[in-house]
Amino acid sequence: MPYDHTNIFAKILRQEVPCVKVYEDEHTLAFMDIMPSVEGHTLVVPKAPAKEIFDLSADGVAALIRTTQKVAKAVRRGLECPGVMLVQLNGPAAGQSVPHAHFHILPREDGVDLSLHGRAMRSPEELEPVAARIRAAL
Ligand code: 5GP
Fold first, then answer.
1. Dihedral sign from CA coordinates of 35, 48, 24, 84
2. In CATH, what number is assigned to the domain containing residue 88?
3. Over the stretch 66-79, which tens digit does the pLDDT of each residue have?
């Protein structure tokens, strides 16, 4: 199946749909997950039209993981969380729901269980103060 240019992350990248942005550079964009499974749940996407991580060039993967490391460090510092989980799903069978490659950055605490997908949609007003703490730690 070819890349679907109507997927929600493609629309966010084209600024047709808003997001609460944390970081952007030439090749990548990081923003708050609209349905966070924990506070601080952040997504990092490549700007290249890649459905899965395997569709990126080696340079594209390098840019994606570089930004993921940078933003994950800021999540850890800014939100003062003891652990950070990075998750990356490829294909519906792996649980991928948006067909544009991405990393999840998930703050973790001892003894707090986590399921990858959240259940409640959050407003930009709720996400913005969390994003500001991450941005300030970049
Ligand atoms: P996947 O299951 O593909 O690994 O994860 C997709 C993630 O994108 C989910 O955690 C979901 O909450 C998030 N998501 C879906 N639609 C939107 C949206 O419109 N805006 C934002 N910021 N996140 C979204």
1. positive
2. 3.30.428.10
3. 999 999 999 999 99
pTM for this structure?
0.94
Q: How many Å apart are CA 74 and CA 50, to the nearest integer? A: 25
pLDDT tens-place string over residues 84-127: 999 999 999 999 999 999 999 999 998 888 777 777 899 999 99
Note whether residue 88 is domain-resident: yes
Q: In the chain, how many domains are there?
A: 1
Our answer on whether the CB atom of 5 is closer than 6 Å to any ligand 1 atom is no
Token pair recorded at residue 121: 């949609």
From 6, 23, 33, the mutation candidate for ligand 1 (largest count of ligand atoms within 8 A of CB) is 33
In a domain, 118, yes or no: yes
Does residue 49 lie in a domain region? Answer: yes
Residue nearest to atom 18 of ligand 1 (CA): 34
**Residue 74 covered by a domain:** yes
Q: 124-136 vs 58-79: helix axis angle to the nearest 10?
A: 100
| Domain extent for 123 | 8-136
**Selected catalytic residue, list 5, 27, 41, 102:** 102
